[in-house]
């Protein structure tokens, strides 16, 4: 197997040039097994291109005729190559402690050494060497131990097998069709699936789901008579250490099994899940498990049988348990047929109200997958209170790489800073465990038994587009997701540097410093820029209904979806306080229950999420709410215009196809941001009657 390099697809963060440092060295790879073979092949390909060599380890006296520059070895081998012996000796006390995915890395006496207890670790170690480039072969450095913070690092594809009449091939997909499915069939381009797996492994991801959580009739059959298609995808991803999971419908015992019920407590239903799951594992022995959206936006679930979500999740968990599988059960459950006249119902409350009482009732191979915010991936939301409410349940935090609400990959919006804030947030206050700690398995609960972490999940942004993600700069989000799942403490701007140097390799770029500077100028603050010209101060959802692109302040205001801003002539925002509102603030532990309740303490950026205030309300920043709306919307458009200008300055430094695609998308971003600015400013000017203090043009 040769590492896939597709000619008609952008190489993203693994262009051949990124392997130059490694490929020009003498390397030995020791160990056996599928993933070790992948490592060996990666090294062989790079060496063939850049003049290095791959030495086969000898048995017995393991002395190379020339010293190796790089040793990649399993600690469990009968012998490790001579160059690694000193590092192994240093690790001796900890051998077996690196975990399946971990590795040790050191450079001493002119040899770079990667040691791993298991093959996945060796693969991750290889990609760390690639990431470091020449620095991996420069000055010596002592033994570093690398282990991922999250055991499960999963991307969810919302891909449909058949083109859905409303949502298309990929629900909320902005990168063309699906890389797995085309017009009802498995893609004929399986080499592309393999190349995808390679990219994901290099970022740290180790699991994917291959179909939408909204499971339609054809997609449901992936579990049974279409399982062969899933197995074919699994075969492509396996060499890169990526397990395949499947979104299933809770109604499957009825729709596929012909049973009269899908009641999770029914014996026949239990038996059907057990039998069906056994067949899945007979076909795909390393199958990861199921992802389930139940009782949500029209999907069937246990409520239909008067059962709880713990009952529903546990029947599936019982079925996958003998095979080491997991059930990712989504907490995105709310009433999407709300009456907008009813101000007491609050969608933000729903996940906590449904799930917090069930803490401790889920089997230990159930992972409750919680969107990071209580509503739905808005550009600004508080952290979901569910994250702090279920210490006896394994929780996974769900992010959205696909930019449904952040510009749909037509706008530059680097999400690293948002995710860094989310993952570093302390649900019990700054001194307690962080959101990332909860996902990794550490909570503030001292009384209960420790539960494992559920990891990090995200909705993928990838399609069959030649740039993978539609907008070439959106590749950075996909890369950053994997890196954060590996280490949530990484600096988002350092991740961006890694991505820039891998994608636009300095040795192959005319003026790498200028390129890097400009990309930082365009991308570093792009999430906050997007926030500036869209919905203000955390209020969210001022998008066009249905496709969710572009502004429509009242688009959702009188709909059943539960996403309102309540703007009138006097003020704007949702009163979620205990004192006078929906009581949502009471779902948080201290200190946030108090901070969010208090108009004085509530952070500006979340003010309208928690409070309904007059337009003249003065923010901590010193500005009034209305003036803040005007100022940020004017500033946001100026920043996007500046980004467009800066991109024009560096087009000579990048591949013309990338230059053209990014340029065209920046043109659209300027147009769209201007539309956002003008609609938002005009709407709030007409509502409030308050003129802009600076007399700028409002329509
Ligand atoms: C897959 C939002 C999106 C839906 C998506 C849903 C979910 O509502 O608009 O397209 O459905 O989230 O996360 O399940």
From TrEMBL:
Pfam families for this protein: Glyco_hydro_67C (PF07477), Glyco_hydro_67M (PF07488)
Domain Glycosyl hydrolase family 67 C-terminal: 469-696
All copies of domain Glycosyl hydrolase family 67 catalytic, residue ranges: 146-468
UniProt keyword annotations, A-Z: Carbohydrate metabolism, Glycosidase, Hydrolase, Polysaccharide degradation, Xylan degradation
Coiled coil: none
Domain of life: Bacteria
Family label: Belongs to the glycosyl hydrolase 67 family.
UniProt name for this protein: Alpha-glucuronidase
